[in-house]
Design brief:
mainly beta, Jelly Rolls, five-stranded antiparallel beta sheet, four-stranded antiparallel beta sheet, 1 helix, 11 strands, 48% strand, globular
Amino acid sequence: MRFTKAVTFILIVIISFTSCTTIDLYEKVVSIPNYEWESTFKPEFRFNIKHTTVPYQVYVVLRHNDKYNWNNLWINLHTRAPGDSIQRIQYELPLASKDRWLGSAMGDIYDHRILLTPKPIYFKRSGEYVYSIEQVMREDPLQHILNVGLRIEKKPQ
């Protein structure tokens, strides 16, 4: 009887994980040294794409404390596809409304997962992609940023 309950529990766990609406492909988060993000510190993220016919969504993952001085964050996202030169796209990431932080909170720490691609994207070639994130705020170093990362998800069809 105990064996049957264990098998049932394992099957329920497997089914719940396979029924998610998105499939994670890649997520990496980098700690910011001393919580001071120098503009010269550009964390790099490398991942491989196998399927070019699948739509993906790209997110920036960010963690800061409540002492962060701004309601947004300006970044340059540098991308390099297999066989291509580096491309740069600038984004403004909203972090707060007029009266509150937009991310989820735990004490005085705020986590954000910010979608960069409102429409799903298709990677043109299979192979290794390299992304890096550069902060381009007026404050340098940018105080009270704990982590920054990149998340790539397959979008369900």
